[in-house]
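wait is this the right file?? whatever heres the structure
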C-alpha cells in the first residue's frame, strides 16, 4: 500500500508526450515522498529502544544491609489478660510472626523479660529460627515474675553492640511500663532507635488462672491490668522513637517496617563478590528518532495525532469522572482480584463481574446477605456450598441445612458439605432442646404462680369476711398488673437468652469449621497408618506401643525454654529483686 504514495506513473509509454501533460495529475519527474519511510524508520527505532538492547556488561560489587534489630517481648503475667482476644500474649505472638515474615535482610534477635531479661535467640540472618520458638513463648517460662523492661532494653543494646551493624533497632512489645522506669530505659537504649508496640486496651481485663479464678494482689483484690499510654508516649518523645498500638490489620507492622526503611545502611560483601550488570543502550537510539519526529511535527502529523487522542479520551465528562490510573492497564475483574488479595473485600465485591467472586468477596467482608444473593444466582455444588456457609453465619440454620443437602444430592462425596451438614443438625438439635427447656420453664413458672395465687386467695377468704368488695377489686387489679409486668419481664429475658444462644451457636459453627482442616489431617494420618499392610504383626504391635508412649508425653512447647531460663537465672546467682507488682 505504501508503494502507491511514491510510485511514478507509467502512462508515458502509452500516451504521446504532447498529450500526457493534459492527462497526468502531477509532473512526470515527481519526487518520491519521504513521509512513509520516515514514519516506518522512526517506529522501528522506537520499538528497538523499548526492547532494551544491550551489548556491554559491567561488574558491580554486591552490597548487603547492615540493619540489626532486637525484638523485646514482655512475658509478665499481665500479658495473659483477655481484653484482646484470645489473650495479649497470643496476639503478640501472631504479630511477631507477621513481623518476621516481613524481615528480608539484616540480623534479628529475640529477648524475653519479666522480673529478669533473657536472650531467647541471638542475632541471626534467618528469621525462621525465631518463628519456630514462638509457640513456646508464655509467661510461665520465666523464672522470676514481675516486669523489668530496662533490663531487657539493656540486654538488647549489648546484642546490638556485638554486631557489625552501624545502626540498631529495638522493638519493644509490651502492655505498659511505669513512670519510674522511663529514665532507666532511655539510659540503657543508648543511641539505638526504639519502637514500641503497645498491646492491650485502656479498659483492661482480669487475668484468668489455669486452675480457675483470677489473679489477685496482696490485698485480695482482683488484678485488672490496663494499658497506660502516657508513660509510653513520654518514652518515645524523649528518645525520638515511634509508638504504635497493636491493630487487627498490618498498620502497626507497616509503621515498624517504615522506621527501618527510612534509615538504611549497606556495606560491601566481605568476600568481595560482584554481580554482572548489563548497560542498556536503548536511550541512545532515541537520538536518531528526534530529527525524524521534528520532521513529522513540522508537517503537523504529531500535532494531529495528539488532538485525536486528547479528544477521544477526554471528550465525555462522565468518562473523566470514572477514569483512573488502573483503568488504563487493568480490567475491572483484574482490579477486583488485586483488591481481594489485599484484603479490600468490600471494594472488590463492587468491581467483580462474576457472581461467585462477588459472593466470595461479600462473604469475606462479612456481608452475608449480599453473599447469599450472589451465590443464589448460580446452581452448582460449589455455589450451593458457599451459600450454605453464608446462611449458617447469618443465623439461618434451616436454610443452610437445605443448601448442604442440595450439594450432597449433586455430589454425595462432598466431605466438607457432609461435615457442615452434621454440624448444623447438631446445632439445630441443641437449639430445639433449649427451646423445649425454656418452654418447660415457662410452664413451671406459670404453675407456681397459679399455686401462689390460689393460696393467696384462700388466705384472703379465711381472713376478715367483712372486707369491702371495692378493696378486693383494687387488690385483684394490682395483682393482675403485677402478673402482667412479671410476664413481660420473663418474655424479655427469654428473648435475650434466645439471642445469646443464637450467637453462641454461630460462634461454635465458626470454631468447628476452622478446626475441620486440622481434624481432617489427623484423620488422614490415622487412615494411612491403618492401611499400611506392609508391616508385620510384630512391627504393628511395636508401632502401637511407641505411639502410646508418645501420647503420654505432655504437649509443652515451652518446656525447653523454661528450663533454659531457669538454668540461666541460677548461673547468674543474682539476688531476686522483688517488684511491687509481680504481674
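ok assuming it is, sequence goes like this
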Amino acid at each position: 500500500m505504501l508503494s502507491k504514495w511514491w510510485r511514478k506513473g507509467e502512462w508515458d509509454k502509452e500516451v504521446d508526450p504532447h498529450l500526457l501533460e493534459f492527462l497526468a495529475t502531477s509532473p512526470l519527474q515527481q519526487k518520491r515522498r519521504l513521509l512513509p519511510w520516515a514514519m516506518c524508520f522512526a517506529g522501528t527505532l522506537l520499538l528497538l529502544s523499548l526492547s532494551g538492547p544491550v551489548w556491554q556488561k559491567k561488574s558491580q560489587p554486591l552490597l548487603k544491609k547492615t540493619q540489626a534489630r532486637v525484638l523485646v517481648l514482655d512475658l509478665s503475667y499481665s500479658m495473659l489478660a483477655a481484653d484482646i482476644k484470645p489473650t495479649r500474649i497470643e496476639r503478640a505472638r501472631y504479630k511477631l510472626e507477621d513481623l518476621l515474615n516481613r524481615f528480608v535482610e539484616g540480623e534479628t534477635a529475640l529477648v524475653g523479660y519479666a522480673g529478669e531479661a533473657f536472650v531467647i535467640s541471638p542475632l541471626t540472618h534467618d528469621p525462621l529460627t525465631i518463628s519456630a520458638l514462638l509457640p513456646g513463648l508464655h509467661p510461665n517460662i520465666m523464672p522470676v515474675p514481675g516486669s523489668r523492661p530496662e533490663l531487657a532494653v539493656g540486654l538488647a543494646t549489648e546484642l546490638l553492640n556485638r554486631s557489625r551493624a552501624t545502626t540498631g533497632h529495638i522493638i519493644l512489645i509490651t502492655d505498659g511500663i511505669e513512670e519510674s522506669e522511663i529514665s532507666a530505659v532511655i539510659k540503657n537504649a543508648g543511641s539505638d532507635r526504639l519502637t514500641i508496640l503497645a498491646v492491650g486496651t485502656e479498659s483492661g481485663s482480669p487475668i484468668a488462672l489455669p486452675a480457675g479464678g483470677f489473679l489477685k494482689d496482696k490485698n485480695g483484690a482482683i488484678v485488672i491490668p490496663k494499658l497506660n499510654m502516657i508513660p509510653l508516649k513520654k518514652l518515645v518523645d524523649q528518645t525520638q522513637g515511634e509508638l504504635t498500638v497493636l491493630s487487627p490489620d498490618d498498620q502497626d507492622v507497616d509503621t515498624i517496617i517504615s522506621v527501618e526503611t527510612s534509615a538504611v545502611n549497606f556495606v560491601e560483601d566481605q568476600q568481595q563478590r560482584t554481580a554482572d550488570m548489563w548497560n542498556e543502550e536503548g536511550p541512545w537510539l532515541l537520538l536518531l528518532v528526534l530529527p525524524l519526529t521534528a520532521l513529522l511535527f513540522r508537517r503537523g502529523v504529531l500535532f494531529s495525532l495528539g488532538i485525536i487522542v486528547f479528544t477521544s479520551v477526554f471528550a465525555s465528562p462522565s468518562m473523566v469522572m470514572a477514569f483512573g490510573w488502573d483503568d488504563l492497564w487493568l480490567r475491572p475483574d483484574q482490579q477486583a482480584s488485586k483488591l481481594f488479595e489485599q484484603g479490600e473485600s468490600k471494594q472488590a465485591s463492587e468491581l467483580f463481574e462474576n457472581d461467585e467472586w462477588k459472593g466470595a468477596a461479600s462473604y469475606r467482608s462479612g456481608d452475608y446477605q449480599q453473599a447469599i444473593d450472589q451465590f443464589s444466582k448460580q446452581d452448582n455444588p460449589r455455589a450451593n456450598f458457599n451459600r450454605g456457609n453464608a446462611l449458617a453465619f447469618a443465623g439461618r440454620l434451616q436454610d443452610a441445612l437445605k443448601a448442604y443437602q442440595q450439594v450432597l444430592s449433586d455430589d454425595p462425596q462432598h466431605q466438607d458439605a457432609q461435615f457442615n451438614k452434621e454440624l448444623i443438625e447438631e446445632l439445630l438439635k441443641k437449639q430445639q432442646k433449649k427451646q423445649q427447656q425454656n418452654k418447660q420453664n415457662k410452664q413451671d413458672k406459670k404453675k407456681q404462680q397459679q399455686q401462689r395465687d390460689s393460696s393467696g386467695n384462700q388466705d384472703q377468704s379465711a381472713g376478715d369476711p367483712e372486707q369491702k368488695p371495692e378493696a378486693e377489686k383494687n387488690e385483684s387489679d394490682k395483682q393482675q398488673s403485677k402478673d402482667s409486668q412479671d410476664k413481660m419481664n420473663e418474655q424479655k429475658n427469654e428473648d435475650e437468652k434466645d439471642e445469646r444462644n443464637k450467637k453462641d451457636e454461630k460462634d461454635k459453627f465458626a470454631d468447628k469449621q476452622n478446626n475441620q482442616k486440622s481434624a481432617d489431617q489427623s484423620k488422614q494420618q490415622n487412615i494411612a497408618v491403618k492401611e499400611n499392610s506392609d508391616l508385620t504383626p510384630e512391627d504393628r504391635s511395636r508401632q502401637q506401643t511407641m505411639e502410646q508412649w508418645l501420647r503420654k508425653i505432655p504437649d509443652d512447647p515451652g518446656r525447653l525454654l523454661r528450663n533454659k531460663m531457669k538454668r540461666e537465672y541460677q548461673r547468674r546467682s543474682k539476688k531476686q529483686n522483688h517488684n511491687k507488682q509481680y504481674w
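The beta strands are 54-61, 63-65, 68-74, 107-113, 117-124, 168-174, 193-198, 242-245, 266-268, 274-280. so i think its the right one actually
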